[in-house]
Amino acid sequence: MGIEGRDKVKALEAGALAVSGQLGKTVQRLRKANNLSLSELSEHSGVAKSIISQIERNETNPTLATIWRLSQALDVPIEGVLQVSEDEPFLEKASKGDTPILVSDDGKCRLAIIGWIKTVEWLQWYGFSAEPGGVLASDPHQRGSVECLSIIEGELEVEVAGVVEHAKAGETLRYRCDRPHVIRNLSDRPSSAMMVCILRAAAME
């Protein structure tokens, strides 16, 4: 199950939260490099002066839309606002509360979006868990996409285009996800897995 539509926006915003610890320093550095006051940056970006001040002091977690407005006003790509300064070590932490959770229609499967914002267009990964009887049905992703499901606990079944395969703890299933696919927990105990979705895999003819 790759990120699509509103879920993709949630994931992007979650990624923005994850880098917010460095964001304040970057915004302040870029603002000063452009000789802009807080008021001037507010006028150019449409973001309230008080919000910009809070961002620079790392007192708020801005949305992706806010970061985009600031990047436009500072005349840099959004990646330039989100990136860590080259002379600083890269080490970030996303808390449990900052990790978005997707829930299946039956309420028995959960996907914790733990992937990185900078890879969301081509590589996504999740913590997957399913209660007994849980079913996660997903629509096709873009052509050539592949999912890898590594079972950590329990047993899961994957069905793709009528083909069914089972895997237990320690085993991995890899399958095309550019067609409808279903993950089921048919066992009588909870199961968990690590799911990786490669959205720009080589097309499998």
What is the structure about, briefly put?
The protein has 205 residues and is of the alpha+beta class. The chain has 6 helices and 10 strands; from the N terminus they run H-H-H-H-H-H-E-E-E-E-E-E-E-E-E-E. The longest helix has 14 residues, at 5-18.
Kindly describe this structure.
There is one protein chain. With 205 residues, the protein is of the alpha+beta class. It folds into 2 domains: 63 residues, 434 Repressor (Amino-terminal Domain); 102 residues, Sandwich (Jelly Rolls). It contains 6 helices and 10 strands, in the order H-H-H-H-H-H-E-E-E-E-E-E-E-E-E-E. The strands form 2 sheets. A 6-stranded antiparallel β-sheet has the order 1-2-3-10-5-8, with no helix packed on it. Helix 2 packs across helix 4. 29% of the residues are buried.
Task: Just name the CATH architecture of the largest domain.
Answer: Sandwich
General shape: elongated
What is the CATH superfamily classification of the largest domain? Jelly Rolls
Number of strands: 10
Structural domain tally:
2
Strand content: 25-35%
Radius of gyration: 20 Å
Order of strands, main sheet, comes to: 1-2-3-10-5-8
Q: Fraction of residues in helices?
A: 25-40%
Q: Write down the CATH topology of the largest domain.
A: Jelly Rolls
Please count the helical segments. Answer: 6
- The helix/strand series, from N terminus to C terminus, equals HHHHHHEEEEEEEEEE
Quaternary status of these chains?
Answer: single chain
Biggest sheet overview: 6 strands, antiparallel
Average pLDDT number: 83
The termini sit apart by 21 Å
**pLDDT < 50 stretches:** 16-20
